[in-house]
């Protein structure tokens, strides 16, 4: 089986061949668990007639062999700890759940709330200690520091992963985790491996490979945050098959990324400010967690002051794929401040909740009237249109473009028009965040941040 063949953010993909193995032939149902069934080839029944109220009722009882049996979900373990890289963790969880996997996010810390490397707080599904007696089809380790060290020092996780390798089941690691976590556990032996460039020197030189994705039998490794899409889609292929990975690549907009310009700008104006740029990202139940976490992570790397505000009554918010994020403030408290930029994340159910917020409507109206910047990702462009804030060049998710009442829509990954910035969503989120950094600062800072992400940034 070939590894993932998707075009992905212009990254090279390593093609490998693995020994024949049993994989699910079920086609994943995105946004909900698969409901595929196996049917018995036998048809046995018992027929009887009964009379009630002068009418004859015919009863047919089917054999239990005719009752469809659900195909078990592929079960995946993704552990997180203090300092885990949030883009890597969230993209993996989101993509694998979209593909139909039963993904368990397990904390290696004493509590379920875990603060990740860029300050994002996630709430795990369970503690790692609850996973010790379970069997997983895949164990995938996100990187980040000190997150990779926290994973390495977790004995329960070490035992789970070693058992996974011994029993020839899939396991993987990205960024720092191959060198910092798997290597000390002895799980890189006789395996070609890649990792983040900052940890390259730790790998055994004769088996280290400089590629963004490496599949070596049961082990899959990758380099960093911006290669998380490739990494995750490769894992989908290994769990569900090549057709599933291709469908996922299309869903994430990876398949058409190379066909579009990365960024187009119109009516160029300066965004520079004489203070640390302040950014507000409102989120609601159902907001697209990949877009939220990716943009927050990358902007904070560039030292922007980012506030994530909950549109709900509580700080914890449930993202589009059940990822539990903890906001910094409630929107009513966040609204007491002003922001240089307000960014709206996408996803239909989350966007619907954003549209209903009177506080957000007021903030966006003031943002526009005061000459400050605002942006939309994916389908959230509809929020701006309803408020009359879309009289500019813009882009959006392909499914939304045809529904928008505008002649100024541009088929590009990212579009900037004066004070407005928009993007298609999902896999274009890194380009979107880096474009924001370049506008507030310069291409130099954006390029520096991109290097840490292992992203091929281009100024033009």
Question: Can you describe what's shown?
Answer:
- The protein is an alpha/beta fold and 460 residues long.
- Helices cover 28% and strands 21% of the residues.
- The protein contains 14 helices and 23 strands.
- It has helices at 86-98, 147-152, 155-166, 177-182, 228-240, 242-251, 289-301, 331-334, 348-355, 358-369, 381-386, 398-401, 429-440, 443-453; strands at residues 37-38, 45-52, 55-62, 69-70, 75-80, 102-107, 113-115, 121-123, 126-127, 138-141, 170-174, 213-216, 219-222, 263-266, 278-283, 305-310, 316-318, 324-326, 329-330, 341-344, 373-377, 414-417, 420-423.
- Strands 14-22-23-21-20-15-16-19 form an eight-stranded mixed sheet, with helices on both faces. The chain has a seven-stranded mixed sheet with strand order 9-6-5-10-11-13-12, with helices on both faces.
- Strand 22 (414-417) and strand 23 form a beta hairpin.
- Helix 1 packs parallel to helix 5 (228-240).
- The longest helix is centred in the first third of the chain and has 13 residues, at 86-98.
- The model is unreliable at 1-54 (pLDDT under 50).
Number of helices: 14
Rg from Cα: 24 Å
β-sheet strand percentage: 15-25%
Query: How far from one another are the termini?
Result: 37 Å
Share in helix: 25-40%
Largest sheet: 8 strands, mixed
Structural class: alpha/beta
Mean pLDDT: 87
Stretches with pLDDT under 50, minimum 5 residues: 1-54
Shape verdict:
globular
Major beta sheet, strand line-up: 14-22-23-21-20-15-16-19
Number of strands: 23
């Amino acid at each position: 089986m070939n590894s993932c063949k998707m075009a992905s953010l212009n990254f090279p993909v390593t093609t490998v061949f693995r020994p024949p193995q049993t994989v699910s032939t079920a086609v994943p149902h995105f946004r909900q668990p698969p409901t595929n069934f196996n049917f018995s080839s036998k048809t046995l029944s018992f027929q009887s007639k009964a009379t009630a109220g002068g009418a004859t009722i015919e009863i047919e009882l089917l054999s239990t062999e005719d009752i469809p049996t659900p195909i078990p979900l592929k079960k995946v373990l993704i552990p997180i700890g203090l300092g885990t890289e949030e883009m890597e963790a969230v993209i993996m969880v989101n993509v694998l759940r979209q593909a139909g996997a039963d993904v368990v996010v397990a904390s290696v810390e004493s509590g379920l709330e875990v603060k990740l490397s860029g300050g994002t707080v996630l709430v795990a599904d369970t503690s790692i200690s609850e996973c010790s007696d379970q069997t997983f089809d895949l164990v995938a380790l996100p990187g980040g520091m000190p997150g990779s060290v926290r994973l390495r020092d977790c004995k329960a996780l070490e035992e789970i992963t070693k058992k996974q390798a011994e029993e020839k089941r899939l396991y993987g690691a990205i960024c720092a985790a191959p060198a910092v976590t798997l290597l000390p556990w002895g799980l890189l032996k006789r395996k070609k491996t890649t990792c983040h460039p900052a940890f390259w020197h730790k790998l055994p030189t004769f088996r280290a490979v400089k590629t963004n994705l490496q599949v070596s039998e049961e082990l899959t490794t990758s380099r960093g945050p911006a290669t998380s899409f490739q990494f995750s889609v490769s894992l989908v292929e290994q769990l569900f098959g090549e057709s599933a990975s291709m469908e996922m690549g299309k869903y994430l907009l990876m398949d058409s990324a190379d066909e579009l310009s990365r960024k187009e700008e119109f009516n160029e104006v300066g965004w520079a400010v004489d203070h640390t740029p302040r950014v507000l990202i409102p989120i609601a139940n159902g907001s697209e967690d990949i877009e939220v976490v990716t943009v927050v992570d990358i902007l904070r790397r560039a030292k922007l002051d980012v506030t994530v505000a909950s549109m709900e009554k509580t700080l914890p918010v449930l993202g589009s794929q059940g990822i539990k994020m903890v906001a910094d403030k409630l929107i009513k408290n966040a609204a007491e401040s002003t922001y240089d930029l307000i960014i709206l994340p996408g996803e239909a159910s989350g966007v619907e909740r954003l549209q209903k917020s009177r506080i957000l409507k007021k903030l966006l109206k003031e943002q526009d009237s005061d000459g400050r910047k605002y942006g939309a990702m994916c389908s959230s462009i509809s929020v701006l249109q309803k408020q009359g804030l879309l009289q500019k060049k813009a882009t959006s998710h392909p499914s939304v473009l045809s529904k928008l009442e505008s002649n100024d829509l541009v088929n590009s990954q990212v579009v900037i028009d004066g004070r407005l910035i928009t993007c298609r969503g999902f896999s274009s989120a890194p380009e979107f965040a880096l474009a924001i950094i370049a506008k507030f600062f310069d291409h130099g800072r954006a390029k520096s941040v991109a290097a840490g992400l292992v992203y091929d940034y281009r100024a033009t």
